[in-house]
Amino acid sequence: SEGRTTGRVSPMPGVDAKPTVGAVVVAAGRGERFGTPKASLELGGTPLWRIARDLMDSLGIESVIVGDVPGGVPGGPRRRDSVANGLAALGDVEFVLVHDVARPLADTHLVKRVIERLTDRDIDAVIPVVPVPDTVKRIDGDRVVETVDRADLVLVQTPQGFRRTALVRAHAADPDLDATDDAGLVELAGGRVGTVEGDPDNFKITWPDDLTRAQLVWRRRNDD
Ligand code: C5P
Description:
The protein has six helices and twelve strands. It is of the alpha/beta class. The strands form three sheets. Strands 1, 2, 5, 6, 7, 10, 11 and 12 form an eight-stranded mixed sheet that branches. Strand 3 (42-43) and strand 4 (46-47) form a beta hairpin.
C-alpha cells in the first residue's frame, strides 16, 4: 500500500544496532483555515503526503500516513487521536517522529538533527524551534495588555521526535488532555523535552498564500 513503507530494520537488535525510527505523518483534519484538506495539495506536482513519505523513505525511516490518502490510516477527531492511530499502525520502533503533512519543506538535515538529539539518554522528546521574528503582545479584545519578552520564546515545528514509550505514556496519562503539538502532551505528563535548531523555511502551510511561498522555496531548491 502506498502510504506505508517499511524502512531499514537493524539485523540484530541490541547488538551494534542503530536505533529504529518510525514516522507518523499527520494528514487528517479538514484544513478549515486553508479551505481544503492539506494532504492533497501539491508542490511541484507532488502531493504533500507523498513529499512527507519520500522524505522519510530517503532516510530509511518507516512511515505511516494518517488521513484520507492512498494507503493512509484513518484520522481521529483530535490531532492526538490521529497520532495515536498512526502509532498503533507503526512497528515496534524505539523512536517515533511525528510530522505535519503541512510542512513539506522539512529536509533531511532537520530530521537528522532531531534523531541525533533523541539519542541523548536523558531526553524523552525533541522539538525543532526557531526564534520569534516579530514583537509579541498579549491582548484582550482590541486592547494591549502587555508586551511579552520574545527573547525566551520560540516557534515550534515538526518533525518532533519521541522515545516511543514516552509518547505512549503521555497519551495514556490523561485521555482528555489535548495539545496543539505532541511534545505538549509529553510536557504535561512530566517528560523531558529538548530543542534543536529548526529551519525558517520549514513553515506550516496554513493559509493559501503559504502555498505560493512554499512553491518559491521548492523551485529555488530544485533549481540548485
Ligand atoms: O490544524 P493544524 O494546522 O494545527 O493541524 C496540524 C496537523 O494536524 C495537520 O497536518 C493536520 O492534518 C493534522 N491533524 C490530524 N487530525 C486532526 C487534526 C489535525 O491529523 N484531527
